[in-house]
Amino acid sequence: MRHKLYLQIYFAFLGGLLLFALLAAISWKVLGDGDEKTRFESAFALLLTEALPEHSPIEKSKQTMLKLAKQFKVRLSLYGRDSSHLVSTATPLPLPKQQFKSGWSHSHDGDLFILRLSDGRWLVASHGERKFPSALLVILLLLGVLALAAYPISKRLTCRLEQLQRQVDAFGQGDLKARAKVKGKDEIASLATRFNHTADRIEKLIEAQKHMLSGASHELRSPLTRMRMAIELMQQESISETKTKLEADILELDDLVDELLLSSKLDAGNTVRPFEQVDLLALAAEVSAHYHADVTGESIIISGDEQMLRRMLRNLLENAARYAVKSPVSVSVSGSSDCAIVCVCDDGPGIPEAEQQQIFEPFYQARSGTQSHGSIGLGLSLVRKIAHQHHGDIRYVSENRQGACFEVSIKN
């Protein structure tokens, strides 16, 4: 049987109270047997002896005892040294058989307290109406009140955990929109906030994977269809022509799988490596040399993943070279040590304003028209993910000029 957390807290609280009461009683008992208690009892016995002189008339002693009984709301009986009854305020109280030299004693046979006076006589007192010692009654009442007060507190504390548990169960059963309510600023609120952040990230990852799978299945059909057709036409075409077409299709499939794997790793955060100091201008010049692009700017040292930055520049340059018409692609590097800016521009057809926000989505292809440019629509999506990995972003720069220009910011 599963134990509720609020009951565990509740019973632990009650157990602590009981232990405290027990230790307090033991301490009172142990410390009460010390010299201070003995001196107090001796002084009290002396005062009562003076108030009830041994040779005082019985009637006068009775009047004194009546005053004491009324003041303390008790019954009293006085016994001589030989245990003979002398006087009582009401029905005589029995004198216990046990003997002691001085101080107070409590009879286990009833609610009786016995005090040995300084002259050897005995004074017996009883509360009469009370069934329990007052100290025990107070402790029981205190425990009852605290028990009643502790239950709603423990229940309220764990109620928020139960709500969080229900949301976690719902999320685990497939409800990706399940979120916990954040109340207060304590540890439970912090736990709910972390769960919500984790749920947001998992939901985005799953949605990205679904979108990626849908796009990949669509993109894989084209090269597979061409490969199937090439095999069927092997008898009509030469082997060398068929081989060339198959190699091109295999290369396209290889690029697609490579970009799919990289996109999935970036989404999952598995590509994060220790950052190192990278000269962004030198890296841009090295990558641009393969595309015969013009590079300008200033040398800026940033902290980043050189392999991912190289892939980012290569994707930007491939995208620009794919659409460039006459002029070579231009690359500029600017900024400061806090934030570097890389701008890659071409003189192609540009991007319609309606599509400028969608071009960074996976598998979205713009500017293609009726002409095939060999793009699968993952290049700019990967650039944005790599920029986010370096605490930056990418945007399309809309200017009154022909072509397209992409600006990537990288924060140091």
Structure keywords:
412 residues, alpha+beta, Beta-Lactamase, Helix Hairpins, Heat Shock Protein 90, 3 domains, five-stranded antiparallel beta sheet, five-stranded mixed beta sheet, 9 helices, rod-shaped
Task: Describe this protein's structure.
The chain has 412 residues and is an alpha+beta fold. It has 3 domains: 34-131, Beta-Lactamase, CATH 3.30.450; 179-270, Helix Hairpins (Orthogonal Bundle); 273-412, Histidine kinase-like ATPase, C-terminal domain (Heat Shock Protein 90, 2-Layer Sandwich), CATH 3.30.565.10. 52% of the residues lie in helices and 15% in strands. The chain is built from 9 helices and 12 strands. The protein has helices at 5-32, 35-51, 58-72, 134-172, 187-232, 239-268, 280-288, 306-323, 379-389, and strands at residues 75-79, 85-88, 103-107, 112-116, 122-126, 276-279, 294-297, 301-304, 330-335, 339-345, 393-396, 405-411. The strands form 3 sheets. It has a 5-stranded antiparallel sheet with strand order 2-1-5-4-3. Strands 7-9-10-12-11 form a 5-stranded mixed sheet, with helices on one face. A two-stranded antiparallel sheet has the order 6-8. Strand 9 and strand 10 form a beta hairpin. The radius of gyration is 46 Å and the shape is rod-shaped.
